[in-house]
Design the sequence.
């Protein structure tokens, strides 16, 4: 009885915590609210009479707390996507182990678990294993341990479908009779393979979708474990996280103009290149210098930065912030236009810019900033490409047709900081680079920004 | 069966609450949302505590303890890293 009340309280705190995330002002408190809910759920569970021994629990929690705290305090903000992927994976692994332990235990006691118990156990093992290994692969890709390029091979889809069916078969055998623990581990093993196979073909630009999806999986795994233990708090929290993950996955897919099956089973890059780069760029691209851009900025009243993953890779946030502060001092209005899929995870650019102490009310989402480009004197595109490609708007038959983009070409002048005219992930040329109002500043993002800061300070 | 219907009801209602609450989170906070909800999915820790505390066979204890450790990393790391991120979001002036 007491424990149920505690679980209800914890659930309410989780929901209030997530609600707090609806505004940066209340978000810190929201996160703390969630943490308190977690503490209540844990303490209530520990005090419940079902628990006989505490020494192993103590060892486990101590080890986990130290490791978790070390990770969380040491990690750099730029490494946040892989950190989230890793934590995600640990939750999935815990689900596999818990369901496995409970199944063994049930069999030792004569196995009186019913159908719900067995199906949930199999699901817990399977989803947990996919989450764990999928997250590890995502971590490896983001950390640069494995290639970020899509790993594709012939017969890929057939292999994936076969492995998936095999995993389902293993799950089915797990539920036989009073439960079969050998098949449980086989199913989890096949699930692990499936997790790897589903993530390894996915390329860098699709990472935000994968991370969101793995987040959803980890919620579903927790909910499945809740059905194993008939435990309301696991089911509720799992459902909340699952909903969050699915919701983010959908936003990311919409923002990239892709369907989820298309991301999971591939297809991008196969579009025939009907647009020749030379036809678009030939003689129309204008290169500029930091000095010229500095002059333009000096005369501007409103400047918008459009950052992409290239800014994060080059670690150019700091000079961006310095230039922002210098321009604001001169009375220039500066804002940031952020595409939903910029970076390697949802909201990645916002975190990087917030870390630079850039006020969050200057970080604008796509819908909010698109109408203001016509009144913007200079847009500085830094490390972004496909998300500012007007082809998405104007023609059909390209991989990005119909994708929502930032309409930077409506601004008076667009400065694109980029090392070369190389295409982005979509593999198509960008007419923005050849537009009349576009100037190209060819350089590494960080070097270009540092030169720009210098030139701006020297310009009278 | 009755019990099953009861918990499936809770599950479905929780999904609706989740969608409702999360659709209000602005894109600017999507990364903290992910890491924060990720920390909440570390609730598996409760299950891990139950299985580690049963103390029936050595296997259960080993699996349970390992699960406790992994889920704790998820919970502690998740909430801490979210806190670190959120405390960077400041408004000037």
Sequence:
């Amino acid at each position: 009885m007491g424990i149920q009340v505690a679980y209800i309280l914890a659930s309410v705190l989780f929901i209030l915590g997530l609600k707090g995330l609806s505004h940066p002002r209340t978000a810190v408190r929201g996160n703390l609210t969630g943490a308190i809910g977690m503490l209540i759920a844990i303490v209530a569970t520990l005090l419940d009479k079902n628990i006989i021994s505490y020494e192993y629990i103590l060892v486990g929690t101590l080890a986990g707390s130290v490791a978790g705290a070390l990770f969380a305090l040491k990690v750099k903000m730029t490494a946040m996507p892989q950190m989230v992927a890793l934590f995600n994976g640990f939750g999935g692994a815990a689900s596999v182990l818990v369901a496995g332990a409970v199944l063994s235990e049930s069999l030792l006691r004569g196995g009186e678990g019913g159908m719900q118990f067995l199906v949930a156990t199999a699901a817990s093992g399977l989803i947990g294993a996919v989450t764990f290994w999928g997250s590890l692969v995502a971590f490896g890709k983001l950390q640069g341990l494995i290639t970020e390029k899509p790993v594709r091979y012939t017969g890929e889809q057939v292999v994936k479908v076969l492995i998936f069916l095999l995993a389902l078969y293993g799950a089915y055998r797990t539920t036989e009779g009073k439960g079969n623990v050998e098949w449980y581990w086989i199913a989890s093993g096949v699930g692990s393979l499936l997790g790897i196979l589903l993530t390894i073909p996915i390329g860098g630009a699709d990472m935000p979708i994968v991370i969101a999806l793995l987040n959803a999986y980890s919620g579903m795994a927790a909910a499945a474990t809740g059905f194993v233990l008939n435990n309301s708090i696991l089911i509720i929290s799992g459902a909340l996280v699952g909903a969050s993950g699915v919701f983010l996955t959908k936003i990311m897919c919409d923002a990239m103009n892709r369907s989820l099956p298309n991301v999971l089973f591939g297809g991008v890059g196969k579009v025939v290149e009907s647009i020749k780069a030379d036809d678009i760029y030939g003689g129309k691209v204008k290169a500029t210098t930091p000095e010229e851009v500095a002059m333009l900025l000096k005369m501007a009243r409103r400047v918008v930065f459009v950052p992409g993953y290239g800014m994060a890779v080059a670690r150019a946030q700091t000079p961006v912030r310095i230039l922002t502060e210098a321009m604001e001092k001169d009375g220039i209005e500066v804002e940031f236009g952020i595409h939903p899929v910029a970076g390697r995870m949802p909201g990645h650019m916002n975190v990087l810019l917030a870390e630079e102490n850039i006020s969050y009310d200057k970080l604008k989402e796509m819908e909010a900033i698109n109408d203001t480009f016509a009144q913007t004197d200079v847009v500085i595109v830094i490390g972004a490409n496909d998300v500012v490609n007007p082809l998405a708007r104007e023609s059909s038959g390209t991989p990005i047709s119909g994708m929502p983009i930032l309409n930077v070409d409506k601004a008076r002048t667009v400065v694109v900081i980029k090392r070369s005219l190389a295409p982005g992930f979509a593999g198509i040329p960008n007419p923005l680079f050849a537009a009349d109002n576009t100037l190209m500043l060819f350089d590494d993002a960080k070097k270009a920004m540092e030169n720009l800061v210098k030139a701006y300070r020297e310009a009278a | 069966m009755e019990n099953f219907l009861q918990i499936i009801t809770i599950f479905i209602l929780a999904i609706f609450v989740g969608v409702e609450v999360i659709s209000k989170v602005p894109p600017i906070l999507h990364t903290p949302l992910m890491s924060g909800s990720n920390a909440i999915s570390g609730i598996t820790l409760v299950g891990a505590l139950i299985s580690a505390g049963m103390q029936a066979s050595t296997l259960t204890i080993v699996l349970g303890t390992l699960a406790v450790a992994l889920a704790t990393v998820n919970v502690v790391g998740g909430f801490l890293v979210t806190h670190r991120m959120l405390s960077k979001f400041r408004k000037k002036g």
